[in-house]
């Protein structure tokens, strides 16, 4: 990326980035109106970035020289891109987009979309049976609660979107999540749940995820304690042929395929079984539709009209050229309170890499640290550092003009929703323009870039678009850095060492004087 | 800090930090056992830091030269340290420690502790009345739910500790939180709550917090809609003499004082009313006791025996000398899932500053970006970047040997709690030592520092200690950077701009062609 002509030009341009604190800097030359990118019902205002038309042109050239859109198209059409050339690797297609490519006659990856449609049909039938009582508990009672057991990609995404769309949830349905191997996580959920009328969805692609299988056993123990038969309550979401693909142990099995990575699996059965139970089948189709629309936008070559690509290259400008090590995603929507945690996973697990797709050490930086909490809450928490700290943090604000639930009240002349939007926009201005002041403690340096991502209302369809927007952004950035965004070798060493520590605990460790034993002793020495 | 002798020595030492990847690097010279610091029932293992005895000695000298412990002592005894010399400022004492200095005969700040004791007595009486039914609703029914309305310091801390100690919560009591001005936040809580048997605690020191007062009105509207009288349900936690200090509008008022900042207010009535309702009075006394004990530890001059100070100076070593811009706090305890969000606020709002206590621009960096999520969940999310990414992130791990609820099960020969601890320790080793591999994708560079903070079990007392540990760490780092950690001028500009945007929305803006109006139009243009 750095060696391309565009990359070199960007390096030069980064020496004197656009000054957002100059008079009329945000509005000069129709900038505010021109620097808007639309996709579906989302629009991104990016006047508050430290960019000029020249920078945008160079970013376009970078996108072209790195073939970002072409690579995205190849991915959608089934190219084997989950690999490191010359080394043993997963060697797989990357086809999460196929899960929602169900609305057109000629899907980009027909076989994968056919599999997705077949699972959707199964799900529709199952949800109908649950609603009608055709599938019910041993006493003939309808299931009204679902416990979702998974971790990482099988937890953060489903949880984030469940929270985001609770306003659309059916009143007679409850959903709980268990993820952590910490036994208190399962215990807290099981304590408050009526297991007799609960479905339990166990989600693990491999069928061997340590945390998930341990939590499954904790739930099964609780079911049996209540005189319930686990296989009448438990549903498997897993890879075909995995140890969990066993009709004798589960009421149903829904499949995910090896071309879908955990952190990209929200629009597969990993997310849809639970969301379908809570929202109903029609709403998950709307959710998929929003995602499918955004996937098409990501194939547009003009960065000014391709929202995911624009978000991706602006992120690269901030991270690789202006040198900011982190990025904050700050939704002005309480419903999105767990969306940053999902993005943190999807982004950092995909792009937290140090070698390129040929196994060579990267020259520059790959993915940043992504973090965030909802506004306005954050304004009363960490925004002090955003405005006046010594660490500079580019911000991606997300907000909606209308609330989901429509319950509001005018206080001091304005509604809460108006206050929310006013604060959202105000923060973007404040970070960009700063403020001079004689008192050094009231001085704001400004020139802290942000984007504003605005929608009309957070519906299931918009949630789908927002998800696909960020998934595509992450993938496109990975292409620019020339890394494999789809493996996660960095999690293996910890797993291997944990196994050795467990061996120390059970006394089966072969080297009782090793580092693991010593650390365990020091940690447990209650002295 | 940089100009001190110790500061200069540290700069030199940072050029060749200790190599954690060398053979036996963690265990050499009894390092693993020696690099342990204890306080109460917490112990910190810090062998996995890139330090030597020489670095520790220099950090001790830095602490001494900057008078860190003396300044902490002065704070606890009522020095006016919330100020910028030569400029208008809040000019206040900083006495959150006085709230828990209730266990000794001679408290460090007697007047403030007397006020804390008096509020505690009031609270005890009130909680007794609620339990006995002496305070009840209009129909004579007992209150069984509490809705806590606050934001920032009046929300994140109480929420984090409520979640952390839910295992100790009384079964007949429920607590909900409303914080965001997003009207969906209140609507979601109100929808699921029986208001007739609910107390509503409104928390705002100034009595004018925009979000909190708007949410109060939303709750009052809902109470009236249900035929309930707000003043029979609402409790004020506020500054004496604030607009909320009004017995005609509230069932009770509990006071916080101007010497307690919002983000340090957890052990004042801001946290204790809600925690007392949920846990009972005895448990909050245990919580205060844990905090009081840690405050005393922070007065020890030897960094090797002063846990908060050691945590503070190790953080400075990583941030200012080794140059890491962020720090991750990763609790291996699902109960602590919101503790990083509280610390993020407390740390970044305190130390996200750019001028020193004399109003001069800082030479080096002040506070880092603090972020985190619980393990093992994070292992399946962002740990890929921690192990193999191009951004280096020092980690503060927190874990406990025993679970809170005691519900566990052996799966594949070990309990979930054992798996949790094994993973915690394994991550610390993996980050430090790394791993050589011929395959570049399986290579782990190591030398990524962490500390392990271990307790026996997360009880109310340990939670108090953990809170006070981090509060003291933050304050001590602020002293080292010579900044005022107790004001938050950086939040003012956004507030002022939000007011102007609201004026644009209601048509009362005097400059309808200004930036605010234009941005509002661009954001709302649904095109």
TrEMBL record, chains A, B:
InterPro entries referenced in this protein's UniProt entry, alphabetically: G6P_Isomerase, G6P_Isomerase_C, Phosphoglucose_isomerase_CS, SIS_dom_sf, SIS_PGI_1, SIS_PGI_2
Active site positions: 349, 380, 495
CDD domains reported in the protein's UniProt record: SIS_PGI_1, SIS_PGI_2
PROSITE patterns, alphabetized: P_GLUCOSE_ISOMERASE_1, P_GLUCOSE_ISOMERASE_2, P_GLUCOSE_ISOMERASE_3
Catalytic activity annotation: alpha-D-glucose 6-phosphate = beta-D-fructose 6-phosphate
GO CC terms of this entry: cytosol
Enzyme Commission numbers on file: 5.3.1.9
Gene Ontology biological process: gluconeogenesis; glucose 6-phosphate metabolic process; glycolytic process
Compartments, record wording: Cytoplasm
Entry keyword set: Cytoplasm, Gluconeogenesis, Glycolysis, Isomerase
Pfam families registered for this protein in UniProt: PGI
MF terms in GO: carbohydrate derivative binding; glucose-6-phosphate isomerase activity; monosaccharide binding
Pathway assignment: Carbohydrate biosynthesis; gluconeogenesis; Carbohydrate degradation; glycolysis; D-glyceraldehyde 3-phosphate and glycerone phosphate from D-glucose: step 2/4
Function: Catalyzes the reversible isomerization of glucose-6-phosphate to fructose-6-phosphate.
UniProt record similarity statement: Belongs to the GPI family.
PANTHER family, per the entry: GLUCOSE-6-PHOSPHATE ISOMERASE (PTHR11469:SF1)
NCBIfam families: PRK14095.1
The name this protein goes by in its record: Glucose-6-phosphate isomerase
Species annotation: Desulfoprunum benzoelyticum
